[in-house]
Design a protein that fits this description.
Elements: H1 3-22, E1 28-31, H2 39-50, E2 54-57, H3 72-86, E3 92-96
Parallel strand pairs: 1-2, 2-3
Helix pairs in contact: 1-2
Length: 107
Amino acid sequence: MSDSFYFIAKEKNKRLLNTLDKHSVKAALFVQGKNMDSSNGQKLLKEWDDRGHQISNHTYSYLSHSSNKVTFDEFSKDILKAENLIKGFPHFEKFFVFLICMKAIQV
């Protein structure tokens, strides 16, 4: 994660979190691990955790379980790689969101 991206993400994080706080709403954040695999990514995630939002898993590298190119073993390892990055946060919940492949439909 580059420093310029971090500062943009930090501002977006701040706005989202302040809006959720303003309306007393707690959210579930399903984290893509590769976005959190740096000190800057961990700082962004900590802000969500510090405010009491649920932290859960959305794979490490966004592999698709429905791809013919990805084995079950590769997909499982990708999930666990992300979990290892986020499981130490106090608001971590062991939930996983599957990727949904959208296909265009011609009418």
